[in-house]
């Protein structure tokens, strides 16, 4: 059986055309080198070298074999680089789920940065409801989720990517449009459009508890799964909503976003299963933190 070392012996002899110098370069003695070359020729069924007392020359078959083995060694070196990249998380596959609302905050920046830093990673992004994201991580159908912090983090690792204030979104002609900052007590009696608790418990609870802390019991008119749909329905005059500040990036002409007094803050986190050993997770988390830090700085200066 031909081994990689036999090809290395052959290529060294082909480059030196001298058994003594080739043996010296290979750190072996000349007789074993001669035997290995003879065995290689026997295995191939062709003569690779013309030998005489004065010189060694490649045959036509030897010249062709030298060219082709160069391709073999180049492929082997590439295979080593690929294996090292995969071990370091710089190559491979990564499945990431994200909430649609983060498409208006950190997900685009994270995706751009990671794709630029690690072009050899096949990154699959899927928009998913918060309800399903933690389950997808636990089941292993996704490697990482970008979401609000799950209630049950057992078996999971999390890192905060982004914090943003909540803001109130008002429809056209609303009585509070003239105010620069909205006191939550002024929202008493309003019809709220809110995400159902079973879909996004962290977001639902922040909104509900904020109102209760200021003496307001939200009058829930509509429960809607997606934040962008909530903002659209506010624009249609179906109620008001408290949403993450990044939803301002929808830039709807029919809605107005106003800051809240003592506004609550919602966290967006990266979540992954603690026993998921995909090395691309570590590189993704590091890149995501870098992109999120930049997004936070831009938010503060906006």
From TrEMBL:
Coiled-coil zones: none
Gene3D superfamilies membership: Periplasmic binding protein-like II (3.40.190.10), Winged helix-like DNA-binding domain superfamily/Winged helix DNA-binding domain (1.10.10.10)
Keyword Coiled coil among UniProt keywords: no
Keywords annotated in UniProt: DNA-binding, Transcription, Transcription regulation
Domain HTH lysR-type: 2-59
GO cellular component: protein-DNA complex
Protein family: Belongs to the LysR transcriptional regulatory family.
Protein name in UniProt: LysR family transcriptional regulator
Annotated source species: Pseudomonas karstica
């Amino acid at each position: 059986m031909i081994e990689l070392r036999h090809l290395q012996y052959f290529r060294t002899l082909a480059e030196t055309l001298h058994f003594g110098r080739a043996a010296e370069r290979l750190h072996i003695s000349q007789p074993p080198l001669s035997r290995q070359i003879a065995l290689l020729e026997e295995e191939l069924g062709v003569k690779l070298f013309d030998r005489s007392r004065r010189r060694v020359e490649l045959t036509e078959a030897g010249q062709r074999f030298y060219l082709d083995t160069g391709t073999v060694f180049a492929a082997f070196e590439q295979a080593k680089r690929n294996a090292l990249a995969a071990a370091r998380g710089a190559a491979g596959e990564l499945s990431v789920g994200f909430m649609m609302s983060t498409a208006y905050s950190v997900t685009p920046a994270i995706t751009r940065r990671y794709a630029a830093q690690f072009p050899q990673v096949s990154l699959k992004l899927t928009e998913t409801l918060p309800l399903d994201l933690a389950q997808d991580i636990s089941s292993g159908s996704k490697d990482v989720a970008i979401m609000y912090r799950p209630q049950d983090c057992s078996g999971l690792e999390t890192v905060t990517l982004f914090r943003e204030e909540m803001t109130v979104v008002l429809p056209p002609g609303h009585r509070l449009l003239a105010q620069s900052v909205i006191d939550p007590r002024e929202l008493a009696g309003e019809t709220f459009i809110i995400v159902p608790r079973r879909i996004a418990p962290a977001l639902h609870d922040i909104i509900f508890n904020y109102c209760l802390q200021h003496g307001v019991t939200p009058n829930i008119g509509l429960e809607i799964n997606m934040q962008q749909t909530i903002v659209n329905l506010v624009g249609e005059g179906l109620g008001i909503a408290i949403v993450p500040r990044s939803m301002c990036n929808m830039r709807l002409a029919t809605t107005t976003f106003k800051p809240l007094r003592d506004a609550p803050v919602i966290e967006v986190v990266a979540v992954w299963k603690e026993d998921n050993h995909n090395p691309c997770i570590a590189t993704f988390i590091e890149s995501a933190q870098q992109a999120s830090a930049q997004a936070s700085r831009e938010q503060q200066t906006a």
